[in-house]
Amino acid sequence: MNNMNQLQLQMNATLDRRRDIAKLRRLVVNPVDNIDFSSNDFLGLSYSKTMRQEYLNELQSMPFILGSTGSRLLDGNSQYAHDLEERIAKFHGAESALIFNSGFDANAGLFSTVPQKGDIILYDALVHASVHEGMRISRAAQLIPFAHSDVGDLTMKLEGIKDTKQNIFVAVETVYSMDGDIAPLNEIVQVLRSYWPNGENGFLIVDEAHATGVYGDHGRGIVSQFGLEKMVFARLHTFSKALASNGAVILGSETLRQYLINYARPLIYSTFMSFSSLALIQTAYNQLESDETKKIQDHLHNLTRRFRNTICLPTGNLLPSNSPIQGVVLNGNAPVRALASYLNQLGFIVKPICSPTVPKGQERVRICLHGHNTVSQVDDLVQSIHTFFNVNNSLESKL
Ligand SMILES: Cc1ncc(COP(=O)(O)O)c(C=O)c1O
């Protein structure tokens, strides 16, 4: 047997073990025409004919080739990219912006390079895998988790390290991707300010992936909604969710931008995104600024309220979230798969989120509401979940 065959056997055996414990990941193609309660396309811009036409117009008007042709540091840079970054920085009220090929690259680049030797990172227990990827190879001396959105626990952990001369980074998301709850950002800022009134060596890093386009005036995000722009060291906005595009931007000081250009390996050693991707991001920001999108945002928040006000599940089965990300929790991968497949058969696209993506016992069906969903689709979904749970109460009585 040659080495290649042995490797195939080893990989197959590992996959079989995953299959046996119902943890095998698979690529699935969503059935066409089913109702989307799953994607991160919160504003429905992926379906928008207006955005599509504006994108095609933008492409037509660009005097550029299609591919960027290289890393940003070699041939991949352009005035178009610089102008887009300036526009994005201004829109979100930041000093500067730096585009990355993905949110994953941006977080990995930020967390792997910015903490200096011996620094400390405190991170919310539920931060995204991309933050872990960056922390894993960072030079930070300590990586300390704090209980999810628990300001008391954060304070206790800060208390233990407050006298250090090292930099301390606190990493949070604004809308948590799997739970949908919103971070107590004001309180977190206050705690940091109570230790470092002038931001001496306590730095807040905020991932706005799921808030982008959804919260804040015209979708500027939650940092902007709370007026905390000056209190945050770095912000991540992804274009890959509500903005129907790809890529992400890190907002922060010009020094941070220059530092990342010099040290962030995902930016330095990867071909920069194509002009067609930049044009799509440009078009998405045009959409965000439009009044039409504001109406879609209002509709989305109305649908979220309707879902919350009408659904009635036993305690513990519905996650406490007021955002468009909702979670129906069941204990174990098999029950969660059963609910998802029941809803799929009725024509709803929803996905089971199993352990290890979420903690054991916290498996859930993740439901995302969208600007392109209708009130009656939401009502049908709620009724169907009730039927699965055998909850016998009419929707009308809750409205
Ligand atoms: C909170 C959070 N941060 C970062 C990312 C990565 O973004 P992207 O999909 O653009 O790589 C995601 C996407 O799943 C996310 O949910």
How would you portray this structure in words?
This protein has helices at 3-20, 49-61, 79-92, 103-113, 129-136, 151-159, 185-195, 222-225, 254-263, 265-268, 275-289, 291-310, 333-345, 375-389, and strands at residues 35-36, 96-100, 120-124, 142-146, 168-173, 202-207, 234-238, 248-252, 325-329, 348-349, 351-353, 364-368. It is of the alpha/beta class and 399 residues long. The radius of gyration is 22 Å and the shape is globular. The chain has 14 helices and twelve strands. The chain has two domains: 23-42 and 291-390, Aspartate Aminotransferase, domain 1, CATH 3.90.1150; 50-289, 3-Layer(aba) Sandwich (Aspartate Aminotransferase, domain 2), CATH 3.40.640.10. The strands form three sheets. The chain has a seven-stranded mixed beta sheet with strand order 2-8-7-6-5-3-4, sandwiched between helices. Strands 9-12-11 form a three-stranded antiparallel beta sheet, with helices on one face. Strands 1-10 form a two-stranded parallel ribbon. Helix 2 crosses helix 11 (275-289), helix 4 runs parallel beside helix 5 (129-136) and helix 12 (291-310) runs parallel beside helix 14 (375-389). Residues 394-399 have low confidence and may be disordered. Helix 8 links the parallel strand 6 (202-207) and strand 7 (234-238). The protein binds pyridoxal-5'-phosphate. Pyridoxal-5'-phosphate binds at residues 102-104, 107, 128, 130, 173, 177, 207, 209-210, 238, 240, 248.
